Amino acid sequence: MAFDIDMIKKVYQDMDERVNKAREIVGTPLTLSEKILYSHLWDGNPSKILERGKDYVNFAPDRIACQDATAQMALLQFMQAGKDKVAVPTTVHCDHLIQAKQGAAKDLQRANETSNEVFDFLESVSNKYGIGFWKPGAGIIHQVVLENYAFPGGMMIGTDSHTVNAGGLGMVAVGVGGADAVDVMAGMPWELKFPKLIGVKLTGDPQGWTAAKDVILKVAQILTVKGGTGCIVEYFGEGAKNLSCTGKGTICNMGAEIGATTSTFGYDDSMERFLRATDRNDIADEANKIREHLTGDPEVYNEPHKYFDQVIEIDLSTLRPHLNGPFTPDLATPVGELGEKAKKNDWPIKVDWGLIGSCTNSSYEDLTRAASIAQQAVDKKLKPKSDFGINPGSEQIRFTAERDGLLKVFEDLGATLFTNACGPCIGQWDRSDRKGDEKNTIVHSFNRNFSKRADGNPNTHAFVGSPEMVAAIAISGRLDFDPMNDTLINEDGEEVKLDPPKGIELPPLGFDVKDNGYVEPVKDGSKVNIKVAEDSNRLQLLEPFDPWDGKNLMGAKLLIKAHGKCTTDHISMAGPWLKYRGHLDNISDNCLIGAVNAFNKQTNFVKSQITGEYDAVPKTQRQYKAEGIPTVVVGDHNYGEGSSREHAAMEPRHLGVRVVLVKSFARIHETNLKKQGMLGITFQNENDYDLIQEDDTFNFIDLENFAEDKPLTIEIEHKDGSKDTIKANHTYNETQIGWFKEGSALNMIKKMNK
Fold it and tell me: Does the active-site annotation cover 160?
């Protein structure tokens, strides 16, 4: 039986009336995305047309999911909200703080020893406030959500950018910062700009080596890392029905890499099969009663150009397998063409590691397709030339895969089986075969491949592909290997060719598990004590940020002008820094250390206008804070691309940065800045970025008149005495300006609860 079935039944009971009302108000047939959005309005039934890309709208999500790295700060904030219990079903999943090194058993034991303080904190807070808790080793948050909590037509938010994975089961699931989640936990609405809609029409059936992963690799090439910003991507067509539910999840998962608000698919037979296979017949039965509301109207899909802001068409029958990378997930190359491209760009051809798993590709079907390639290597006497690492998606997947002999296939090939956790995908990888910054190549089935992402090495060239393609390339040991056309020499000196992969959508004997890792909270948490040691270096109770003094901001100094790509990984690195996610002051020592200084092209080396000396970004900023000097960060396009990491907003705020001025923002990061009481603004004229000099001082001369839809004026004083006056745009509405005035959204919640 499903979790929270009464809540799901209520969503479905309301849906018929709300969808019909929305269709009447809008006056046209509706996409699936619109049906879910309009049926989850905070005020209930729709009452007016909502303008895409313009109107800020309050929504009522059905549930929340948090992973252990982001949950720490989210729950530390919620503890200040003055509530006895979360207002909507919420779960916490321990998957980020487990480092992949020796193998599942030893790695999990070490994580429980080194991070027990954090795990105990998360479990106790969950117990106190009525939150479901998934223990370390239970699985990766998004796979666990897909198997247990996602349901067609629902809306959820999660404190991880790959929350969007649940779109594979027909949800509108959106990654948010912890402050957004706290709003909803506290019984407040969740605010989102009404998204634009991109329709992706899929035709045909994937053949041979082509996988669901190749769909999103191709879409990433088409839309780039920022092409989906402010949009929901809705997949439809006969081709969509030819994909498994978990294949759909893979596609939605990596939609985060194109900046999309989320991605989704309409309810179909594959989703029903998955629901029933994961012991959720009750949801499938209820969904079937309102099936027409759980997908787009037929007219929409028949003439998509009338109803979507942009339409892309992909024929799965002719789609070729791709590898995307290095250093960006939208650099797509068809397999077979990488050799020439690698030589031209001096990318290492030798592949050192093949990594299979992550929240993107760790389903039963993924493992069977990769295992079918691994079994061929065993049968055809091929010894892998690369190391292999496997991360199952959940304990249920791992247990079932072990029962069915899939894991033994990988073990026979010499693979290391890591814990059911994120591991290398988020930098939690103690890679024993590399030291320093040696140039090398790895292939993986993950979603992101930014510089330093997997192993901290800026010269690791990471390429993203399907699990079966990763397996084939790891066996060959070469980036230029094309399994569709090339042969390999086995241990007997024979020339052999790999056959196309064979996958099994769902386990024929059903899923099974002894202990799925779930801990249900007590009914009354009032007697549960939460302890945070004063001398802890892992956890720190939060102090409220100061409210705005209502005056113009004058004399602010430039901290850093970031050059080029500046993701949340550059602003607040993961890897070894994950251990400080619950301690704002300690983790602030990684603030912007990965951003490239535009004036010297170095990282973590900026000029102090106090001393005139160059030093680390956090140390320099702490000097400004000690002197009471406000500062400004300047950035390029799509600033804050990547994860939902609100630390990337909280750290600068904690250290005294007041303004982030960029060419454009990634959606989640812009919201996170607003939530923390920061001023996140964009150049009205992008070329004004070039005016910023290393010793500049900024005066915000009309901030006292901060208002919705009104640009701000900035006077820039240069070291030589000259001045430039520029305009900056913003997207703050009246509520968000209130957050800025109060010092943060949380300050406003506390004020309202008083």
Answer: yes
